[in-house]
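Please, does this match?
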Amino acid sequence: MTTRVAIVGGTGKLGSIIRDVVAGTEGFEVVAVLGSASDLGEIEGADLVVDASTPAVSVDVVRASIERGINILVGTSGWSMERIALVRPLVDAAGTGAVFIPNFSLGSVVASALAAAAAPFFPSIEIVEAHRETKVDSPSGTAVRTAELIAAARSEAGPVESPHVDQRARGQQVASVPIHSLRRPGVIARQDTILSGPGESVTITHDTADPARAYAPGIRVALAAARDVRGVVVGLDSLIDLRLGASAGADAATEGA
């Protein structure tokens, strides 16, 4: 059975990548491509909605999908755990499913997982993320997700040490982690998580060079999950087994080749 997919924001950078992946994935068919200003009634008849719109529009896309009983895959930035908590009761009441993916890159997910694993051992942690100048939101959804994972990993150790955060130049705190956002030409996406302790530091870096190739394997994983899921799922890390390590990465790389 073919899953009919409506893509909101399907003409943007991420939306175009998703559209190509859906079109090339067996069992899925693109039946509607909407812009961020399109009438959301155009999603009628779809089995799955993929949202790659803008943070300002995304909440309306999610609500429109839930109200119509259609599962949704959200790739739009700006969905913190607090914001997701507001729509979770709607998803549960409707008996639908919503998958929120801050970053479709498997490498990004691994980098965030490594940062969370190291977090309990370092008292000072800060994130510096950089994207092209056209990205409208900051901090990035990936940085927010990383900070939330760090905070969860430090549930016993407590908040990170972040002195002088009352000063604007110290960044925006998310789950006690200062995040610094750069928006400049010549950058696609890069994130550095800097963990510091007495006399040493560790920097975990993820750098995206080719979004189409980097995102495709993760998009396929998310599509398969979003088609049948019930309730709310957050993060690609919830859909893959990071314990598989190198073998999982090899399989994903083979799929994306």
